[in-house]
Each structure stands twice: as C-alpha cells, then as structure tokens.
Amino acid sequence: MKVFDILNIHGAIHKIMEEETDLDHRLKFRFLGILHEIDSTVNNFEQIRNEKIREYGTKDPDGNISIDADHPDLVSKFNQDIQSLLQEEVSANISSLPADDVFSSGMDISYLVALYPIMNIQ
After folding, report:
1. pTM for this structure?
2. Are 41 and 90 in contact (CB under 8 A)?
3. What is the rounded CA–CA span in Å between residue 52 and residue 12?
4. CA gap 101, 24 in Å, rounded
5. Which residues contact 41 (CB under 8 A, 6 or more apart)?
6. Environment class of residue 69 by beta-carbon count within 10 Å: exposed (0-12), middle (13-18) or buried (19+)?
7. What distance in Å separates the CA atoms of residue 30 and residue 6, rounded to the nearest whole number?
8. Among candidate residues 117, 86, 109, 96, the one with its CA nearest the CA of residue 31
9. What is the pLDDT of residues 41-70, one digit of tens each?
10. How big is the chain by its Cα radius of gyration, in Å?
11. Distance of CA 82 to the CA centre of its chain
12. Which of 55, 72, 109, 113 is the least crowded, having the fewest Cβ atoms under 10 Å away?
C-alpha cells in the first residue's frame, strides 16, 4: 500500500471517530486497531516532511519555519520530495473491513472513498 493511501485512511478514520457518534462498537474497535497499525507510518511521514520543511524553509522572527512561495525552485524541490515519499510502498498489516459493515454503518458517504482500499468487497 502506498504512503498516500495510508495517510488518507488515517485521516478518514480520525474524522469518523470524531464525527460519527453512532458507530457500532465493533467497527470502532476495528478502526482503533487499524489506527494502531498505521500510526508509525504516519509518524514517519510527518517526521520526514518536517525535516524537508527545515531543509528548504526559512525561519521567521517568531521561530516558525516555512517555505517561501517567492522561491518556486525550493517549493518545487519540496513538492517533488514529498510526492516521491507519498508514492512509496509500505507494508501494513491491516485487517480488511467487511464492506457490509461499513456500508450499513450510516457513516457519511465521503469516508467510503478513503476506506475503499481496506474494504473486503465480495
């Protein structure tokens, strides 16, 4: 699975857990297991992204580091590095979610696209 997919799944599950209060407890339990499994990948991505921001960015008087849009070459290099990282294949031991459980959960349909890679559709 690509880092990009992991980040989408991670973000979607966090939003689901915050916003969907009527989810079945078994589905919540599965979501928590998935988050536990992919947290290290998300943390690793964030660490590398922050390193790249420090590499290409500059510090403002308040100590915040950002990449100045007035330097398109630096923005381009940063974006290339991040895009290549997002396309990296990683191994994640994620149990697939039964599609029937997800579809019958009543959750907002916008989450289904992000969860599709980990759904077992039969």
Report:
1. 0.86
2. yes
3. 25
4. 9
5. 3, 6, 90, 92
6. exposed
7. 15
8. 96
9. 999 999 999 999 999 999 999 999 999 999
10. 18
11. 13
12. 109
C-alpha 46: how far from its chain's center? Answer: 10
User: What's the residue count for the chain?
Assistant: 122
Return d(Cα 58, Cα 64) in angstroms, integer: 8
In 3D, which of 92, 70, 91, 74 has the Cα closest to residue 82? Answer: 74
Query: Is 105 within 8 Å of 23 (Cβ atoms)?
Result: yes
Name which of 105, 78, 74 is nearest 12 in CA terms.
105
Which residue, chain included where needed, has tokens 């070459």?
73
* Cβ atoms of 87 and 2 closer than 8 Å: yes
